[in-house]
Amino acid sequence: MADAAVRGSSTARGVLVAADKFKGSLTAVEVAERVTTGLRRAVPDLAVEALPVADGGDGTVSAAVAAGFERREARVAGPLGDEVTAAFALRGTTAVVEMAEASGLQRLPAGVFAPLTASTYGSGELLRAALDAGARTIVFGVGGSATTDGGAGMLSALGARFLDARGEPVPPGGGGLAGLARADLSGLDPRLASVELVLAGDVGNPLTGPTGAPAVYGPQKGASPDDVEALDAALAHYAKVLESAIGARAAEYAAAPGAGAAGGVGYAALVLGAAFRPGIEVMLDVLGFATALERATLVITGEGSLDEQTLHGKAPAGVAAAARAAGREVVAVCGRLALAPEALERAGIRRAYALTDVEPDVAACIAQAGPLLERVAERIARDLLP
User: Fold this and answer.
1) How far is the C-alpha of 96 from the C-alpha of 57, rounded, in Å?
2) How far apart (Å, rounded) are the C-alpha atoms in residues 324 and 338?
3) What are the CA-CA distances from residue 222 to residues 113, 219, 294 (Å)?
4) How far are the Cα atoms of 15, 18, 225, 301, 336 from residue 344, in angstroms, in the given order?
5) What are the φ/ψ torsions at residue 345 (nearest 5 degrees)?
6) Hey, is 114 helix, strand or coil?
7) To the nearest 10°, the Cα dihedral for 296, 298, 303, 308?
8) Cα–Cα–Cα angle for 163, 131, 185, nearest 5°?
9) Average pLDDT, the chain
10) Are 262 and 152 contacting, i.e. CB atoms less than 8 angstroms apart?
11) Helix (H, G, I), strand (E, B), or coil: what is residue 359?
């Protein structure tokens, strides 16, 4: 019945490609390009609209630029303190800032981790650059960080001071917060008070504890069990000291969903007055997904691996939910499929097309992701389009 509905609709030839990146293989923009090429190889006059998407993590700025935002660059501190060129996106007075651009794992040398000392200072500099560019609304995408400093570095770049018992600044990174004696937020950039700051992320973890930033995400950033214990204690102490600066709200923010995002940078954003929203929901709004959806009957979404994590706030699940609510049919493309048909159906995805269906060797899939994706898109066209 669904195939007949697609083929029989007068608008069936309108396809919207709204997929995330295939991490390690293709950017979201490249995914859209390859899918479009494959579809048009099978149906040359097909109307295809590309809207690369992201959930707030790495690739978020690129998705915004592809949707018409202007790419801006700034020289900021990387997670180890070395200067890097980081980008944000601007359209009118709305900025999209991706903390991974300044403080992400990709900013570390290959094989190098710094779980105790990596800092989000550059993320604060990037926010300040957005303010300097005239932003009045800032979508702050968090994810993919190299840091577990509770956003203390970011707040420092925005004018806060974190001092030890001698009145000296504590060392950078989450480890240095163990020696924190006083937090002074009086010097925060006054423009922050009049800016709408939206914390866009896909994790609802608190700052500390068994499900907090150090315990859950610290090991991904090179933290040993001893490091995790030290970071959890340091962040708990950090939140306690902040109570002297902002009162009981410090503890409330630490326990709030999203506080643990990106090594606790979510906590610092909440301290600044940010509103936490699922990253993909925010980005779909910013990118104009609803308007693009009106022009399509079939939506193609996807990401590198469709698995259980996909169902918990990742881009394909958000796209599918929005498209299903609008009565649109959704299929997905992916490198690897680890979800049963029933799980896909519950997520609003009618069917998933995996590269491994064409090329079972995973290494070959990664190396040849682009051409394989074009072949998968041809199959979608044959299955679902006239």
Assistant:
1) 11
2) 21
3) 5, 5, 45
4) 20, 17, 36, 12, 14
5) -60, -40
6) coil
7) 120
8) 20
9) 94
10) no
11) coil
What are 217-258's pLDDT values in tens digits? 999 999 999 999 999 999 999 999 999 999 999 999 999 999
CA dist 153 and 142 (Å) reads 15
Residue appearing with tokens 């925010």: 282
Q: Over the stretch 351-378, which tens digit does the pLDDT of each residue have?
A: 999 999 999 999 999 999 999 999 999 9
Beta pairing partners, 301: 332
The DSSP code for 170 is P
Spatial neighbors of 291 by CB under 8 A, at least 6 apart, are none
Query: How many angstroms separate the CA atoms of 10 and 8, rounded?
Result: 6
Inter-residue contact 329 to 2 (CB < 8 Å): yes
Is residue 12 predicted with pLDDT exceeding 70? Answer: no
For the chain, list the domains and their CATH numbers: 2-51+288-384 (3.40.50.10350), 60-280 (3.90.1510.10)
Rounded to 10 degrees, the C-alpha dihedral 67/69/74/80 comes to: -30
Alpha-helical runs (H) found in the chain: 2-8, 28-42, 60-66, 99-103, 121-132, 152-157, 213-217, 225-246, 249-255, 261-271, 279-287, 289-293, 315-325, 341-346, 355-358, 362-367, 369-384
**Could you tell me if 182 and 241 are in contact, meaning their C-beta atoms sit under 8 angstroms apart?**
yes
**3-class SS of residue 47:** strand
